[in-house]
Structures are given as C-alpha cells and as structure tokens.
Amino acid sequence: EVQLVESGGGLVQPGGSLRLSCAASGFTFSSYWMHWVRQAPGQGLVWVSRINSDGSGTNYADSVKGRFTISRDNAKNTLYLQMNSLRAEDTAVYYCASVGSAFDIWGQGTMVTVSS
Amino acid sequence: QSVLTQPPSASGTPGQRVTISCSGSNSNIGSDYVYWYQQLPGTAPKLLIYRNNQRPSGVPDRFSGSKSGTSASLAISGLRSEDEADYYCVVWDGSLSGYVFGTGTKVTVL
Predict the structure, then answer these.
(1) Fewer C-beta neighbours within 10 Å, C or N terminus of chain A?
(2) What is the pLDDT of residues A63-113, one digit of tens each?
(3) A45–B101: do the CB atoms touch at under 8 Å?
(4) Residue A61 CB contacts under 8 Å (≥ 6 apart), including other chains
C-alpha cells in the first residue's frame, strides 16, 4: 500500500523546537520531490517547503525561512521537518505530500500546537 | 494572504454545474501549471486536476479544469452530494520561489 505516515507533532512552547518525520512506503520514495503543507484550524492549505528527490535542493515559504529545515533520508524512506523558533502562528496540522505532480499522495497529518 | 484568489463559497443543486475560479498573476498561473485539490471534511486533500486540465485515474469526468492567461477554473458538472468539500488551486510562483495555494472555495450542495 502506498502511504505516508507523519509523526512528531505535539504541544511546544513559543520559541521551542520540534522535528516532524514522515515515513514513506509502497513507492519509490527516492524518485519524488516531497513537500510539507500546513493547515491552521479552520483555515486553508499553506505550502511550507519542498525538497528535491536526492535532497540537494530545497525551497521555503517566506513565513518559515530561516526557522524551518526540510531534509530527507532516502535510505530510510523518511522526510523530515526541523522546526525552530516556533511561534503561535505555526500552530497547524502538518502534512507531508507530493504536490505539483500527477503522483498524488498525502499523509494523514500531524498536529503541532505552539502555546504557553 | 494568498496571492491566488478564489471565491469563498459556491453552491448548486444536484445535477447542476458549478464553476470555481482561481485568479493569479504572470508569476504563477501565467507561467506554470495549475493543480486542483479537493478536501473533504476531516481528511487530507486529494488531487483532482493536474497540469491545468488533466484528470488522474479514478477522478470522474464530471471534474474539469481550464486555464487562460492568469486565471484558472475548475468546473463540476452533474453536481452530487458527495462533492460537498473545500477546493483549492495551487501553482508554483516564480517570484516567490515557492508554491502558493488559493484561498479555498467551499462547495455546498443545496
């Protein structure tokens, strides 16, 4: 079965850090560019970051640039998002996904809550 | 605020045709492919249209996409109750060096 499973979400204080993971299975993970997309409660989808298939190239939304780092380990079929200096406005469900491609796959999402 | 503008809501009765617009600029819709996603309540998004007007296998031909200049549209014909969902356009923006999602449109079947 083709799937993505996120983990690592939770409650963190403002200024804190969190590392999200996304485990891929059922497809050739190393062939695809991968993305993180987030959705604040009751709000729309927001693109966060992407990484190319071998991990050598990345892009970020302005709102997270300098604070978040996307990476991947193709040997472990896993995508990561290191989130530092977290703010209340980073509170959202975070999805790993393939975006901008005919290959459609999304994880179930992991909730990140930034609050004191 | 997103650089892609969609109407917040659209509605129709069963069997009707509903069209959702997505307005952008030369740096996004005007220069790259548009994708459309459907998000049912409480679930992850699902790809409906890729590369402006292509349907993945399994997506009914009731869904169609088009693009002209700096705008794109998603049409749903033969509206059904299961089409009640949020719909988002998304496209690469060359000026931002990132993808941008539209503001989202909630479709209601009356």
Answers:
(1) N
(2) 999 999 999 999 999 999 999 999 999 999 999 999 888 889 999 999 999
(3) yes
(4) A46, A47, A48, A49, B96, B98
